[in-house]
Amino acid sequence: MSPALSGVLGLLVPILSAADARGQAPPAAVYVDVVRAEAVQPRERVIGSLRAAATATLAALEEGPLVELTVKEAAAVAEGDLLARTDTRRLLQQQREQEARIAEARATLASRRAELANLRRDLEALEAAARENAVSQRDLRNARTAVETGEAGLRAT
After folding, report:
1. CA 147, CA 123: separation in Å to the nearest integer?
2. Quick one: which of 44, 75, 108, 147 could link to 71 by a disulfide (CB 3.0–4.6 Å)?
3. How far apart are CA 113 and CA 93, in angstroms?
4. 89-131 vs 137-156: helix axis angle to the nearest 10?
5. What is the pLDDT of residues 6-52, one digit of tens each?
6. Alpha helices per DSSP H over the chain
7. Percent of the chain with pLDDT over 70
8. Partners of 85 in the beta sheet?
9. Is 3's pLDDT higher than 90?
10. Residue whose C-alpha is closest to residue 155's, from 122, 113, 119
């Protein structure tokens, strides 16, 4: 037994025996522990509200509901960190619609190229026939106009 503990017990024994001699109930149990030095953080109770030293306003490139928030409130973040995820279903639908429009435009372009190639072949045939006076000048003008219209339509696509 340590000398400090035996000294404390030596003080308690006379107190306990004196309480029994007077016919009183024994005193409440006392628990003893070795004193040790510890660092403690001072506390102070205050009333008020906390305000952030710095704030930031966030803006998303696309609007929509959030499906995940990847950081906790008051967490430190760095530039480029992912803060939240938005629902991408609307954006994916818009992407599919744009891809469909592009495919449609490509098909229109291919169709107009083929149409123009056919109009040019018709014009060449009419020009050859016109050299032998086998076609009217009106039909030749109409063929030239059709080629010019086809070219303009192709440029507009």
Report:
1. 8
2. 75
3. 30
4. 160
5. 444 445 455 555 555 566 777 788 888 888 888 888 888 889 888 88
6. 3-21, 89-131, 137-156
7. 85
8. 68
9. no
10. 113
